[in-house]
Amino acid sequence: LDKGSLVHPNALAVIDAQEYRRLVVFLQSKGVSLPVLKHLNPLFSTLDKRLVFQSEGVAVGRDITDTSAMKWYKYPVSEPRGFVYSQGRNVFSTYEPIVLCEDVFSCAKVWYYTGCSTMCLLGTNFEDTKVKFLLDKNAEVLIATDGDKGGWDAAKVIRSRCDLLGIPYRVLDVPDGCDPKDLKPKQLLELVQ
Question: pLDDT value at position 51?
Answer without folding.
Answer: 97
